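Reopening this one. Same input as before:
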Amino acid sequence: QVQLEDSGGGFVQAGGSLRLSCAASGRSLSYYAMGWFRQAPGKEREFVARINWSDGNTYYADSVKGRFSISRDYAKNSLYLQMNSLAPEDTAVYYCAAKSTVRPSYDYWGQGTQVTVSS
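Same output, byte for byte:
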């Protein structure tokens, strides 16, 4: 089992920045991928970014490339999402998630943190 607790959301004006954090506990993440997803009101949850815990390879949705950066801290067992140049369309509840690298879907989810970007 992996427990995830995400935080760092808030209210920011367009063009601003926020950094989301996700604290993981429960088991080693060596064979896991960690990701960030978001869900805006009335929309389906969508993929934002992913990082492989072991090798650090990263992947991004086209909508956030060049603006968002995902990273992890081994010592703190934590995941981060640095969000720059935020726009109103980035407004959503953001969730961190974890999955085994051999499984197709994410099994563990944080509780979500609200990000609101005003125009």
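So the earlier flakiness isn't reproducible anymore. For the record, The mean pLDDT is 95.
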